Amino acid sequence: MNKKFIIPIVICTIIIIAVISTCVGKGSKIELTWDAVPAPKEIKDSIELKVYVENSGSMDAYMCAGSNLKDAVFDYVSDLKRLTTSCSLYYINSKVIPFTGDLNTYIKNLTPQSFAKAGGDRTNTDLRQIFDTIVKSNGKQTVSIFVSDCILDIPQNAIDFLGNYQISIKNTFNEALAKNPELGVEIIKLDSKFSGFWFCGHNREFLKDVKRPYYIWVIGNQRYLAEFNQKVPVENIIGGIKEYCAYAAPQKIPFNMSKSTYVTNHSGKINIELLVNLRGSLQSSNLYKNIAQYKSANPQQVAVVSVEEITATDSPYSHVVTLEISNPETLKSETVSFSYPYLATWISNSDDTTGQNIKENLDKTTGLMALIKGVAEAYKNSTTYGSIIRKTKRFVLRIIISGKRIVNVIRQMRLFVAAVFIFLEKIDADII
Q: What torsion do the CA atoms of 95, 101, 106, 108 make, to the nearest 10 degrees?
């Protein structure tokens, strides 16, 4: 081909690209496609609720006049009971002791006298055995509530003891997850009036009218726990909670978008709103709102800029996640993942490893770290809970030029084509 023809063709191509580029700037419409994940439907299953209160000697001092523990357990279990088809009540120490009365009588009988009368070994409770018993008795439609001070009886060789404890707890939950991969665990820290003897191994001390921590564990299918949390938020337990953490198996995050087309702003970016349901991860409202817990597969182009809770009780979604996307016309797919911490920071702050000097550690629990870390180890590959968007067909489908812009584009293209023809005619005349 003659060089005289190549040059104008190249020039023509460059100009076409330039013209098109001006059309893809601010004010352009971006159309998106996605593979939506349906939101979960309301659970219609028959759910069995099992409630276990540890009746070891170390729990006696919580059963004093004005006990916050009694009120909190009564309040929380009463609300959950409405969402289940049956409720079984137990004391637990070295063995499981069924309680035959109703919930009102059960709460009234949370006394040192009733604890002693119920029996079992109240001197040295092995929490490894208790958790193993509770988890193994959990059917797939069972939610278990366990109430305890969670104190481990620390011997002199604490390091070996705590390590062994952690492994035992990990094995218990590993076995449970093998049978029920959707098993979820919630750990709620509360405090209560405490008046009586504190025990830890061979150590004991009398404490009068102090505040001491205790814990409510909720164990069951994470779908059930998610619905419980929606209808009976743990934050609303009477008297309030101190801390919270939870563990759940990874799942696809239900999501959708409110619209499919977005207009680029002055900087060529778009903000898209994702309707997502994060309840299945069982995390706290503060964690959901922390944008640091979200990770984009394309961080140079996509950023999570806000997470807002949906307050409507009838909404199938829990939050609105807003993404800011730069150069959206070049982005073909995107995955945004949500993660929760392996160990919440409050756990180490609440942990005591000695079982001594209780007056200096009133807000701490001996061996708590080993206990919860055992659970964390069973879920260590699950801390990335799921993805909001996964493997979309084509995230950016096409660029739409609309309204006055397309009129201007057509006008520019007509002028350009006419100029090209004149130019080519001149070249052709020169050749002749």
A: -130
Please state whether 357 falls in left (phi above 0), alpha (psi between -120 and 50) or beta.
Answer: left
pLDDT tops 90 at residue 333: no
Boundaries of every domain in the chain: 48-248+340-346+364-384, 401-431
The closest of 260, 251, 247, 258 to 308, measured between CA atoms, is 258
Contact in structure between 181 and 378 (CB atoms under 8 Å): no
Q: Which residues contact 60 (CB under 8 A, 6 or more apart)?
A: 112, 115, 196, 197
Q: Identify residue 79 by its one-letter amino acid code.
A: D
Rounded to a whole number of angstroms, the CA Rg of the chain reads 31
Average pLDDT over residues 39-44: 82
- Tell me: pLDDT of 22 over 90: no
Q: Is 256 exposed, middle or buried (0-12, 13-18, 19+ CB in 10 A)?
A: middle
Q: What is the pLDDT of residue 343?
A: 96
CB 149 within 8 A of CB 215: yes
Query: Residue 118 CB: number of other CB atoms within 10 A?
Result: 19
Nearest to 336 by CA among 383, 274, 248, 263: 274
194 exposed, middle or buried (CB, 10 Å; 0-12, 13-18, 19+)? buried
Q: Please check whether residue 298 is in contact with residue 257, taking contact to mean a CB–CB distance below 8 angstroms.
A: no
Lookup result for tokens 């909670």: 241
* 424 in Cβ contact with 8 (< 8 Å): yes
Q: Helices 3-23 and 404-431: crossing angle, nearest 10°? A: 170
Q: Classify 45 as helix, strand or coil.
A: coil
- Tell me: the pLDDT tens digits for 74-95? 999 999 999 999 999 999 998 9
- The answer to whether the Cα torsion of 377, 383, 385, 391 is positive or negative is negative
User: Going edge to edge, which strands form the sheet with 261-263?
Assistant: 261-263, 29-32, 396-400
pLDDT at 378: 97
Q: Which residues contact 98 (CB under 8 A, 6 or more apart)?
A: 88, 89, 90
Closest CA to 77 of 146, 149, 151: 146
